[in-house]
Amino acid sequence: MAGYWNRPEETARAMTLCAELPKSAVGKILRRALRDGVAWTEWHRRAPAASWVPWYIYVLDVKCNRGSTMRLLHTMLRVGNLDRSIAFYTELLGMKVLRRNDYPEGKFTLAFVGYEDERDGTVLELTHNWDTESYEMGTAFGHLAVEVDDAYAACAKIKAQGGTVVREAGPMKHGTTVIAFVTDPDGYKIEFIQKKS
Fold first, then answer.
1. Can you tell me the distance from the alpha carbon of 17 to that of 193, in angstroms, rounded to the nearest whole number?
2. DSSP assignment of 35-96, as one string?
3. Which of 31, 121, 166, 180 has its Cβ near the most Cβ atoms within 10 Å?
4. What is the pLDDT of residue 125?
5. Across all residues in the chain, what is the average pLDDT?
6. Mind telling me the catalytic residues?
7. CA distance 38 to 58
8. pLDDT, tens only, 93-147
9. CB 95 within 8 A of CB 115
10. How many CB atoms lie within 10 A of CB 80?
């Protein structure tokens, strides 16, 4: 594989193709695979339809990753009742429990929930300290945001399950985007942003 770096013509071709990758499904697969440190055999397993993409381009994409290799992993929320919070995020917001771990020595439990695997997207870390039943919200934290197909229907679902809608669905004050705000069982605000048609 190192030989490709000694071939100017191959590197030039790879750079040209890499410039087009962000606009293609293949580019997305490549970047995700690179981020996960996927091996050659794993790359073929993940993207058999795109296996025509040479391995050196796959490797080169990490070289021309256009800046930072950092990414947002998760947001941590402290919750007073973990099971209640998990039920809210999974049953009402449609997330999945990705992992849950108890730490008896520290007397706390961590549960990670989200729409995608942690390697593929940003998730929520729900932290339950066993001896704490509630928290003060303070004034610094704003809200989480979730894209929804229909903000009106999403609010109706929250209400039907006994949840709290603090801002009904409708166009934002200084624009046309349809939004709404609800709160989770601990009082954290969640903004619903309706997909644009």
1. 35
2. HHT--HHHHHHH-GGGTTS-HHHHHHHHHT--S------EEEEE-S-HHHHHHIIIIIT--E
3. 180
4. 98
5. 80
6. 191
7. 10
8. 999 999 999 999 999 999 999 999 998 889 999 999 999 999 998 889 999 999 9
9. yes
10. 15
Which of 82, 74, 178 shows the shortest CA–CA distance to 119? 74
pTM: 0.67
Residue 128 structure tokens? 């339950």
Q: What is the C-alpha separation between 56 and 59, in angstroms, rounded?
A: 5
Rg (CA), the chain: 22
The candidate with the shortest Cα–Cα distance to 157, out of 123, 192, 188, is 192
Kindly state the tokens that stand for 124. 């929520």
Cβ within 8 Å of residue 146, ≥6 positions away: 93, 190, 191, 192, 193
Pairwise CA distance, residues 136 & 141, whole Å: 11
Lookup: tokens for 172: 């934002």
